[in-house]
Automatic annotation (TrEMBL):
Its main location: membrane. One of its GO terms (cellular component) is membrane. This is CERS1 synthase. The gene is Cers1. It is a multi-pass membrane protein.
Length: 219
């Protein structure tokens, strides 16, 4: 492929994340649209008949396992293996928050909504670990991260949960973490806006990741 050395060094990271996100999105799509779970079209249904200590279905437990394994590995990979970027500290915080959400949700049997919320958020932002996405994909990033996530996940967890289970435990704990993830979504979307602005203004002659230090150093 005649990749430059700096691009070849990033290839394993990008290939691994492309593989994981493809698998996780496919499995998430299967759970949401090919099973009897009504979570996508009726998010508040996550809390119907909820009770503490309820059993987690096997197919959703698999989603917990996949997501926990990935973000556990990503903590180490971001710190010691991947290219260090301007947003790497935020990335580490993102992995800690996501891992805490998923693990705590499973441990407390807080409902499978936390795993789907965290996993869905992470899965909808593959540009976090890759080069900047094509311009044609930017509307999709906005739609998933800043529209569907608040509309379906945050509305269900912040509002609908109290209607179905007035004394639901760990309400503020889980929702605070989900709101932190939302702020990170906005943060990363601003990088996409910056990328688009530079392309439109002619300040970028080739596709570069605006989060990387070597882009500025090469000017």
């Amino acid at each position: 492929c005649k990749l430059q050395p700096k691009d070849a060094a990033k290839m394993p990271e990008s290939a691994w994340k492309l593989l994981f996100y493809s698998l996780s999105w496919s499995y998430g799509t299967y759970l949401l649209f090919c099973t009897d779970y009504p979570f996508f079209h009726d998010p508040p249904s996550v809390f119907y008949d909820w009770k503490q200590g309820m059993e987690v279905p096997t197919d959703i437990a698999i989603a917990y396992l996949l997501q926990c394994s990935f973000y556990g590995h990503s903590l180490y990979a971001t710190a010691y293996m991947d290219t260090w970027r301007k947003d790497s500290v935020v990335m580490l915080l993102h992995h800690v928050v996501t891992l805490t959400l998923i693990a705590s949700s499973y441990a407390f049997r807080g409902g499978d909504w936390d795993a789907r919320a965290a996993g869905g958020c992470a899965g909808s932002v593959p540009c976090q670990g890759h080069a900047e996405p094509p311009l044609s994909l930017c509307p999709g990033r906005f739609w998933f991260r800043l529209y569907w996530f608040p509309l379906k996940v945050l509305y269900a967890t912040c509002h609908s949960s109290l209607q179905s289970v007035p004394n639901i435990p760990f309400y503020f704990f889980f929702n605070a973490l989900l709101l932190v993830l939302t702020l990170m979504n906005i943060y990363w979307f601003l990088y996409i806006v910056l990328f688009v602005a530079k392309v439109l203004l002619g300040q970028m002659q080739e596709v570069n990741d605006v989060r990387e230090y070597d882009v500025e150093e090469s000017r």
